[in-house]
Amino acid sequence: MLLHQFPDLAWLKLQAEKNFADRQGWGGRELPHEGWPNVVLQVSAGETCRDNIRGPLSLFMNLSGESVVTTGKRRVVVPEDFFFITNPDQYYTLEIERRHTAKTFNIHFGDYFADQVLHAFSPPEGHLLDHPFECPHERLEFHNRLHHRSDALNRVVTEISQASELPSLWLEEKLADVICLLLNEEKKLLSLRAGLPVLKSSTRTEILRRLLKVTDYIHTHLDKDLSLEQLSRIACLSKFHFLRLFKVAFQATPYQFINAERIRRAKNMMQHTRLEVQDIARTLGYENASAFSRMFFRQVGVYPSQLRS
Predict the structure, then answer these.
(1) What is d(CA 259, CA 17) in angstroms, rounded to the nearest whole number?
(2) CATH code of the domain occupying 2-191
(3) How many other CB atoms are there within 10 angstroms of residue 164's CB atom?
(4) Where are the membrane-spanning stretches (predicted)?
């Protein structure tokens, strides 16, 4: 279902804690089963704080503006061209800060929806034929992190957000497409984790978690002059241990990673906004438009003004 208003917060918290045991949805709608249903929240809102909600697998993004998502000790600003994932039974807080507005596009996946999509690709075909209604027993979990919104994801989001009607069958198909995209992203992270030069699997998992915390910080502080010492503190690693592991994980130093992200963000802003070059330079932390233009030319091969012409 698609909602254009946030449900009453107290009611939602109570229903989420009870796992929708009474099968009552928004506006008195009867749900087909217990547990979270598939819900898309496309809401234009100003200052908002929806705190401490026990959620399903959820994807948070914005069609315009920024929001802030907190889960556990992680508090992450979600820019327009990113999304953030929380997992089943994680408590989340969604905020839109004072003097800001945002048009949210948040997907709450129904209970075991993602697990069933993965299950369909995992067992042998014969097993699926013999056990067509078997439900997975383990919850699928993703890394809590910011992800770039790919062109493929944006196409699905546009289809859903602009649809005049949302038949449940059609929406399920589109959400299954989203889950497949998320699984591909998670596969990349697992490959990245496997390449870390550490013997114990649990240690690799923890190092990856710390490095992703740093990349999330970079994505939301591109306008700042970030230092190696500052980033290593976020990762809770010594400076040069952090530097070595970051280079192995992302095939780039933190400086190279930051510049590549600034250029990627600049290209997006050049193509999709009317901001002046000097305003883009300031937004991305460059001292002046000339410094930004030189870096842009070294990375892209043309000057920012030429990209728009």
Answers:
(1) 44
(2) 2.60.120.280
(3) 4
(4) none
Q: How far is it, in rounded angstroms, from Cα 76 to Cα 249? A: 21
Q: Where are the domains of the chain?
A: 2-191, 195-251, 257-308
Q: What is the reported pLDDT for 292?
A: 86
pLDDT in tens, 263-286: 888 888 888 788 888 888 888 888
Q: Where are the alpha helices (DSSP H) in the chain?
A: 9-17, 113-121, 125-130, 151-162, 168-194, 201-220, 228-235, 239-250, 254-272, 277-283, 289-300, 304-308
Q: Is the confidence at residue 87, as pLDDT, over 90? A: yes
pTM: predicted TM-score of the whole model, two decimal places: 0.85
Taking CB atoms within 8 Å and a gap of at least 24, the contacts of 114-121 are 114/57, 114/140, 114/179, 114/182, 115/139, 115/140, 117/176, 117/179, 117/180, 117/183, 118/179, 118/183
In this predicted model, what pLDDT tens digit does every residue of 215-258 receive, in sequence order? 999 998 988 989 999 999 999 999 999 999 999 999 999 999 99
Q: Which fold has domain 257-308?
A: Arc Repressor Mutant, subunit A (1.10.10)
CA distance 216 to 161: 26
CA-to-CA dists, residue 287 to 230, 254, 277, 295, angstroms? 20, 19, 12, 12
Amino acid 122: pLDDT: 63
Q: Let me know: does 211 contact 145? Beta carbons within 8 Å.
A: no
pLDDT of 123 > 70? The answer is no
